[in-house]
Amino acid sequence: MINSTFYPTYFLLVGIPGLENEQIWISIPFCIIYIFALLGNLMIVVVILVSPRLHQPMFTFLSMLAFNDGLLCTSVAPKILSIFWFNDRSISFNGCLLQMFFIHSFTSIESGLLFSMAFDRYIAIYNPLRYSAIITSRLIYRLVIVFLVRAVVLVGPCLVMIKRFPAFKTNVIAHSYCEHMAVVKLAAADIRVNSILGLLVAFTIVGVDLLFILLSYVMIFNAVFRLPSKNARLKAFNTCTPHICVFLSLYSMAIFSFLSHRYGKKIPPYIHIIFSDIYLLVPPMLNPLVYGMKTSLIREEVWILLWKH
Known about the structure:
By secondary structure, this protein is mainly α. It has one domain (10-308): Rhopdopsin 7-helix transmembrane proteins, CATH 1.20.1070.10. It is built from eleven helices and three strands. The chain has helices at 23-50, 57-74, 77-86, 93-126, 131-134, 137-163, 180-184, 192-225, 230-263, 269-294, 296-308; strands at 10-13, 90-92, 172-173. Strands 2-1-3 form a three-stranded mixed sheet. Helix 8 packs antiparallel against helix 9 (230-263). The chain starts with 9 loop residues before the first strand and ends with a helix.
């Protein structure tokens, strides 16, 4: 700890506060999760790219989600593992901001892609005859551009404001990665504007997307119950189930991590940090498993690809 304020050239990441001696054991499941997430998402991307049968809007969204998931877990897992294995806790000031930008941008894009997939399923069930006319390649690419621009516009100012802090109380971050509020709390300055901006960004991304996703599924289920055939209703439910599992796992952990960091003063720090790490690593691992197990076309193409090689 340093008594005087200063402007750091680097930060020191603690890892998991209170569990420093157990971090080598915690690293084992974290490493396994990261490997499964990386390989699973890579498999999804490759299978969709090389299989003509999967060149459909739903699978295009899925390939983008898998690609984004691979980048998301890679932006955080290698540094966490280097802390756990080699006690490599230092990260440069600009490197910290870059990691923060990647983490929050990729989570923003992930949220947007989940909303797009919910909208895609709604059109496929509610208005199947006009599906190909509504969900076009042009629409998909425009949505992706919107999500990219949204991430940069919303996350960028948070980083600029951190750079403008005149001094910091310490350079020790009680976290496993460079999370926005964990860094902001170190500043020897008024952080109210940064806190409000963080809340605004979180509400704009998570709140708005979650609201539209829930609205989409309410309309989807309304359309499903109107289907005359029981088999058609069952097929529609089976199509929607993996989407629901994915967005529930992501948003439930995201909301817990976000609220506990600001208001969960009675929650032990290591609980909050572990959940924050899980929130960034587990959904990217679950997505390929959920979609691979529930989507017969993907399962078939995976077996065909493996059999050929």
